[in-house]
Design brief:
Blueprint (H helix, E strand, L loop, with lengths): L7 E6 L3 H13 L2 E6 L4 E3 L4 H5 L9 E3 L6 E4 L3 E5 L2 E4 L5 E2 L2 E4 L3 E4 L7 H13 L2 E8 L6 H11 L4 E9 L1 H16 L3 E3 L10 E4 L2 E4 L20 E3 L2 H6 L6 H21 L15 H14 L3 H19 L1
Parallel strand pairs: 1-2, 1-9, 2-5, 9-16, 11-12, 11-14, 12-13
Antiparallel strand pairs: 3-4, 6-7, 7-8, 10-15
């Protein structure tokens, strides 16, 4: 155990949804010294991006300065490699801990960046000027989130034509998209498996693809605890979801962060790992999570529900860490 008043040191790589929620849940359960490695100055509540497209909040309200999170130590640098329970950084000395929790996100391939606040704002500017908006899915593993953005745009601009073109989608993603298609069509969003016809004044958005982050290429998480084959090294978030054959979405990141926090906290306090589902996960294995996720996509996630999660995030998760 690291010696800082005999408090366990936990190194978290990534200040996104998974990394922040892990820190919040861990510090609810146990006293620990949390070091957060994140190159950005702000935490971005990316689950709320559709809400900004829908006009419920401003995009900049999704940004939370990491400097205000007093209960974690923010190291502003890029993680380059993992050496046991030490993380090599781009410009600073390595950071080591009793535990390492990797939440670096996933590697996105594409020109449209709607999964971060800056990219979403640029897309919004183009949406405002367009007559019609067409999302084109032609990737093995598309970046999930375009569905909620399409719904938000249609809600904000009911006069605009919004369509989604599923030119190619891997079978593993059909379980997620098929139930949503019926719901989307009922909301006035056109669904097609053919490419759109190009017309002047329309906006065409090619949905990017997603891959596991190179930092965690050789790691495999245990779905019950999220611990990898390396002892006391955990993997959560988008990359872990992909490795488990699940779509990388915010709800999944919350599920995994909760499991990992319970696993680490129980080992610190009791000497062995014990986990159970909480309100975010509702279950403890990927197959049940997939069924639950299908249900959520069938019923849809109204923007007002995302707003409720945002209020909880700002007033409970972020506030607790500040």
């Amino acid at each position: 155990m690291s010696k800082n008043n005999d408090v366990t040191k936990v190194v978290v790589v990534g200040g996104g949804i998974a990394g922040i929620y892990f820190a919040y849940r861990l510090l609810q359960l146990v006293d620990a010294r949390v070091v957060l490695i994140e190159p950005k100055e702000n935490h971005e509540f990316v689950i709320g991006i559709p809400m900004a497209f829908g006009g419920l909040i401003d995009f900049d309200q999704l940004l939370f300065p990491l400097s205000q999170l007093r209960r974690v130590i923010h190291v502003r640098d890029n993680a380059k490699a993992l050496d046991g329970k030490c993380v090599r950084l781009a410009s600073m000395p390595s950071v080591c801990g009793d535990y390492v929790v990797l939440a670096p996100g996933a590697y996105k391939l594409g020109s449209v960046e709607y999964w971060n606040v800056e990219g979403a704002k640029k897309l919004w500017n183009n949406v405002e000027k367009a007559q019609s908006i067409h999302f084109i899915v032609n990737e093995l593993n598309p970046v999930i989130g375009f569905q909620e953005i399409a719904y938000a745009i249609k809600t904000r601009f009911p006069e605009k034509r919004v369509s989604i073109h599923l030119v190619y989608v891997a079978d593993d993603y059909r379980f997620l998209l098929n139930p949503w298609m019926t719901w989307a069509e009922a909301k006035g969003i056109e669904i097609s498996e053919d490419p759109p016809q190009h017309r002047p004044g329309d906006l065409y958005i090619s949905v990017p693809s997603v891959r596991p982050h190179p930092l965690v290429a050789d790691l495999e998480p245990d779905p019950a605890t999220m611990e990898t084959q390396l002892e006391r090294v955990y993997l959560i978030g988008d990359a872990a979801l992909l490795k488990l054959g699940l779509p990388p979405i915010g709800w999944g990141a919350l599920w995994q962060a909760s499991l990992a926090a319970q696993a680490v906290a129980s080992e610190i306090t009791m000497g062995y790992i014990e986990v159970e589902p909480d309100i975010w996960s509702s279950m403890s294995d990927p197959e049940k999570f997939k069924n639950w996720l299908t249900y959520r996509m069938t019923s849809g996630t109204p923007l007002i529900h995302i707003k409720g999660l945002y209020d909880t995030w700002a007033n409970k998760v972020v506030k607790t860490l500040s």
